[in-house]
């Protein structure tokens, strides 16, 4: 095969798959580099192979693969400044510091690491990477203290599990908050008592994924043995679906993060009722907050 | 939402994301990963048949994008297609425990598909599978052995007892059928 003759198309396919002996491979590489026609033919063969590659059975990579990559990416940070800065995605978030912790255990954990910054600002939208870094810290501890007392190891391992689970949850939160298909609903108290401050809730819901995040403020304290319960009211007229119970803290703030919900239910509205402790499967009237 | 003025990263095309990656934007990198990690991982898993090794390839291929995004912009080819082929090549290298043969960044790739779009990508995959499954079995097996198992035409000829020329022709015919079916 000389450099003056064009490459057989059969050989181009083998060349593209890097299956030819070294010398033959080198000859073809030299020809292709200076022959536009064969270069184009090779690009087409590569395109065919790309299509063929996509016929493989698809498997999702393990969840930690992305964290691993992003950790390495962060480690090999580029010197170019990034113009996009982290802005809190909701004006609602960050107004009252460190209060929306329910359901995301990492909030408390992260606060230990860096007490000065507001939890919400940290969590949105960079929480995934913050948690990944926290995992690295914990893993490092585990390594260096491997001779420490067994009880201590167990405690740390438990914490690591917790952080990993939180990382997955945090990723889901981040995706839901930034998903263009997300439905954002503000729930306000049904008009009857105009005395401020008015209880307010905000639901972010991605029907396709069944992902729901609900944040509430100015919630009135509950009587003993009572709980607030959030309801998803399906658009197709089905019965309301319980979407988690919650108790406000002493400042009236509460949240429901990623309650277990079926996927693909379009929501007509969201509502909140007061139920007996433990929650209910059907809402007890009245609906004290609603929004759509 | 905070980013009201720009479309979400998930809706941006590969070139825009690569431009961001070039500027060191980690979120753009994450978006590319979300878009293409599945195919890269699946190809590597098929070749190596080992999840841990496949994950290493996945990591390696995407780190290459992070380190030198310029290479991809220059080819003006399809990033998704490129990643799939590179995943295969790297996996074969790992299988044979040899150094990469080419500076893969230089590889040009002509593909008429917008693999950045998930719906289009899925549609293409379905069609390609449909075409491959209808190939004569010798053609299908030969291409599979060459591409996914990294067997040379001599090795395939030895295993199947077919003449070398026949093996080469089968590979070529299978790829030609695939291309023509998409052009139709
Ligand atoms: Zn030529």
Automatic annotation (TrEMBL), chain A:
Classification via Gene3D superfamilies: Anti-sigma factor, zinc-finger domain (1.10.10.1320)
A single cellular component GO annotation: plasma membrane
A GO term, aspect molecular function: sigma factor antagonist activity
Swiss-Prot/TrEMBL keywords: Cell membrane, Membrane, Transmembrane, Transmembrane helix
Domain Anti-sigma K factor RskA C-terminal: from-to ranges: 130-286
The keyword Transmembrane helix is annotated on this UniProt entry: yes
Keyword NAD carried by entry: no
Cited Pfam families: RskA_C
Any one GO biological process: regulation of translation
Compartments (UniProt record): Cell membrane; Membrane
Its membrane topology: Single-pass membrane protein
Protein name as it appears in the record: Regulator of SigK
């Amino acid at each position: 095969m000389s450099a003056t003759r064009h490459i057989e198309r059969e050989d181009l396919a083998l060349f593209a798959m890097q299956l030819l002996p070294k010398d033959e491979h080198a000859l073809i590489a030299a020809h292709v580099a200076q022959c536009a026609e064969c270069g184009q033919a090779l690009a087409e063969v590569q395109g065919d192979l790309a299509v063929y590659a996509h016929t493989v059975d698809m498997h999702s990579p393990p969840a930690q693969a992305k964290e691993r990559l992003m950790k390495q990416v962060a480690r090999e940070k580029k010197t170019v400044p990034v113009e996009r800065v982290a802005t809190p995605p909701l004006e609602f978030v960050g107004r009252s510091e460190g209060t929306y912790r329910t359901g995301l255990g990492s909030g408390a954990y992260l606060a230990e690491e860096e007490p000065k910054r507001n939890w919400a600002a940290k969590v949105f939208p960079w929480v995934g990477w913050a948690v990944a870094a926290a995992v690295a810290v914990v893993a490092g501890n585990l390594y260096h203290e491997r001779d420490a007392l067994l009880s201590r190891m167990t405690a740390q391992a438990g914490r690591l599990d917790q952080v990993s689970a939180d990382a997955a949850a945090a990723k889901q939160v981040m995706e839901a908050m930034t998903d263009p298909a997300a439905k954002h609903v503000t729930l306000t108290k049904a008009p009857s008592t105009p005395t401020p401050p008015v209880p307010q809730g905000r639901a972010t819901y991605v029907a396709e994924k069944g992902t729901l995040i609900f944040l509430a403020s100015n919630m009135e304290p509950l009587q003993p043995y009572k709980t607030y319960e959030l309801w998803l009211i399906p658009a197709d007229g089905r019965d309301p679906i319980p979407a988690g119970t919650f108790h406000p803290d002493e400042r009236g703030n509460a949240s429901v993060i990623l309650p277990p919900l079926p996927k693909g239910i379009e929501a007509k509205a969201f509502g909140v009722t007061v139920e007996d402790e433990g929650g209910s499967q059907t809402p007890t009237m009245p609906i004290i907050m609603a929004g759509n | 939402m905070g980013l009201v003025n720009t479309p979400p990263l998930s809706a941006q095309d590969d070139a825009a994301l690569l431009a961001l990656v070039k500027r060191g934007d980690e979120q753009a990198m994450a978006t590319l990963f979300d878009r293409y990690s599945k195919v890269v991982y699946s190809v590597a898993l098929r070749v190596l048949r080992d999840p841990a090794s496949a994950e290493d390839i996945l990591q390696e291929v995407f780190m290459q994008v992070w380190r030198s995004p310029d290479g991809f912009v220059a080819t003006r080819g399809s990033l998704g297609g490129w990643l799939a082929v590179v995943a295969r090549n790297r996996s074969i290298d790992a299988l044979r425990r040899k150094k990469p043969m080419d500076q893969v960044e230089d590889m040009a790739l002509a593909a008429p598909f917008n693999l950045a779009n998930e719906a289009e990508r899925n549609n293409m995959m379905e069609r390609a599978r449909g075409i491959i499954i209808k190939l004569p079995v010798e053609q299908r097996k030969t291409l599979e052995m060459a591409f996914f198992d990294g067997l040379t035409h001599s090795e395939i000829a030895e295993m199947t007892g077919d003449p070398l020329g026949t093996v080469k022709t089968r590979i070529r015919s299978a790829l030609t059928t695939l291309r023509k079916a998409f052009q139709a």
